[in-house]
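Hi V.,

Quick status before I head out on leave. The structure for the redesign project is tokenized and pasted below; the design run finished overnight.
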């Protein structure tokens, strides 16, 4: 298994950016908390601008992300939200988005 360094995380982020042009990417979970073990996966939350619907399919987008990340051979879990969904849930105490905002690490923000 490949060691997950900051450089590897940056390469993973750039692969996602090339694939779906997100607004933001967060690292969350054990790696963001500094509690990761060697076998821990990489938990990422990706925020895209457009709402999901018939013209913008969440499952197609997330499959594109997983294909882009498959080259890294690192277990990962990706959550994908529209900016509208992200705004709705970002202040929630009990939703993964709210926890990610409070406890996660922002890896990428489109300028």
């Amino acid at each position: 298994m490949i060691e997950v360094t900051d450089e590897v995380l940056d390469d993973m982020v750039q692969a996602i950016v090339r694939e779906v042009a997100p607004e933001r990417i967060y690292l969350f979970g054990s790696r963001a908390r500094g509690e990761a073990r060697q076998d821990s996966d990489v938990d990422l939350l990706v925020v895209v601008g457009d709402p999901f619907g018939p013209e913008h399919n969440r499952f197609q987008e997330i499959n594109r992300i997983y294909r882009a990340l498959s080259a890294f051979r690192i277990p990962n879990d990706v959550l994908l939200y529209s900016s509208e969904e992200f705004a709705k849930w970002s202040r929630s105490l009990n939703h993964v988005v709210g926890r990610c905002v409070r406890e996660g690490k922002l890896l990428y923000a489109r300028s």
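Above is the designed sequence. Strands lie at 24-28, 42-48, 76-82, 105-109.

G. will cover questions while I'm gone.

Best,
W.
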